[in-house]
Amino acid sequence: MNGEQLDLFPTPATSSLVPAAQQVAKTGAEIVVFPLACRRGKIVETAHTLVSRKTAEGKQSYWTRVIRSLRGEMQSRGCRAEEINVQLGAFRFGVGVELSHLEYGDRRFPGGAA
């Protein structure tokens, strides 16, 4: 070889420094996010943190930060507002179910659900 660099892995035309929302606007592509309701680790972590907060203000402050962070994450990836709201609603529901499990455990259906 005469010192030339082989281009074995061509770089994409779009720069990773350009926000995804701008890339989507240029290409007309649709962003499909991993469903927030399936982010089990995040749901469990959020529910446990909410339970551990001592005051209503602490719980509300934490919840607001989590939702704001998830919304910002999806906005930066170019998700539509409607999709963001649907995903956040599903996440809220998942956290609510987890909080219910933490609060009541198996006491809701002693001896089974039947």
What are the low-pLDDT stretches, counting only 5+ consecutive residues below 50?
13-18
Instruction: Name the average pLDDT.
Output: 79
Structure annotation, total helices: 4
The gyration radius over C-alpha positions equals: 21 Å
- Estimated structural class: mainly alpha
Secondary structure tally: strands: 0
* Major β-sheet annotation: none
Strand residues, percent: under 5%
Distance between the termini: 75 Å
Q: What would the principal axes of the Cα set say about the shape?
A: elongated
Order of helices and strands: HHHH
Roughly how much helix do the residues carry, as a percent range?
55-70%
Give a verbal description of the structure.
The protein is mostly helical. It has a domain of 72 residues. It has four helices and no strands. The relative contact order is 0.14.
Throw out a few tags for this protein.
114 residues, mainly alpha, 4 helices
Write the layout of secondary structure elements.
Blueprint: H1 20-27, H2 40-52, H3 56-76, H4 81-104
Helix pairs in contact: 2-3, 2-4, 3-4
